[in-house]
Amino acid sequence: MNSELLALNIRIKSCRMTSNASSSHIGGCLSCADILGVIFSRIIKDKEGVTRFFLSKGHCIAAYLSCLEELGYIKPDVLDNYGVNGSIYMLHCSHYVKPIRFSTGSLGNGFPVAVGAALHRLIRRETEGRDQKQDDMMISLISDGELDEGSTWESIMFAGHRKIDNFLLFVDYNNQQSLGTKVSTLDLGDIKGKFLSFGWYAVDCDGHNHKEISDCVSNAFSKGTGKPKVVICHTIKGYPVSFMKNSVDWHYRSLTRQQLEVAIDEIQEASNA
Question: CB burial class (10 A; 0-12, 13-18, 19+) of residue 35?
Fold first, then answer.
């Protein structure tokens, strides 16, 4: 499945799931759909590869579950069971859903574990004398809100210091957190510059442009030798739904039935544009 179609289906399924469950975080699910589309269509292409991915922004599990279901990695029963009492399809990322390896949701939780997993593979590669292969790469997706967490920066510093070059990080930088903009909550200034100063290969891109994301990843592999790699994806929370875009309200609100219909229509229209 191509990345654009996968992202479209992730958006539609995420809207249906969160609406049915009257749950939160649809804005962040929509902002990261294109990133997930590229990761799972152009980088990770098999079930074993999925186990190398860590969704650190675990509150946007609806998007990840939609992706896994769309690609046939989990049973096609998520829509009816997401958020249902006793279901394994919880409102945050859960390792009870295979092939998810690690439960996440508390910000700054999944990324450090992913760095540790990458270090483990790096040590094995060095001790066994193997060349680096792309299937050694550990991949994580974090929110811009996680850049407020100390555990995130400890991991950034550690990965740069240890030259964990088999690590690829995506930042969903939608500039909206739970109660306000990223800048008003905690302005971190030049994020790319900070990653560079800690020894990372870092690049910015339009997080809704699949070619741009893919090109950044290709450049990371060709130019980022000996360094961990980060693609800072500038996105729009709630994209492309007109009444949701850049609105902090959609961190916690869920779609009514009428809003759901409008949202799906706008998502499909944007995809056809």
Answer: buried
In 3D space, the residue among 223, 228, 120 whose CA is nearest the CA of residue 170 turns out to be 228
| Residue of 138, 212, 210, 142 lying closest to 174 (CA atoms) | 142
Dihedral sign, Cα of residue 33, residue 38, residue 41, residue 44: negative
Task: Give this prediction's pTM.
Answer: 0.96
Counting as low any pLDDT under 70, the low residues of the chain are: 131-135
d(CA 203, CA 100): 27
Check if the beta carbon of residue 29 is closer than 8 Å to that of residue 141.
no
pLDDT in tens, 27-54: 999 999 999 999 999 999 888 889 999 9
The total of structural domains in the chain comes to 1
Distance set, CA 118 to CA 8, 115, 188, 196 (Å): 30, 5, 26, 19
Tell me the longest C-alpha to C-alpha distance in the chain. 59
Q: At what angle do helices 210-223 and 3-21 cross, to 10 degrees?
A: 110
Instruction: Give the model's pLDDT for residue 36.
Output: 98
Domain interval for residue 147: 3-272
What gap in Å lies between CA 151 and CA 149, rounded to an integer? 5
Where residue 241 sits, what CATH number does that domain have? 3.40.50.970
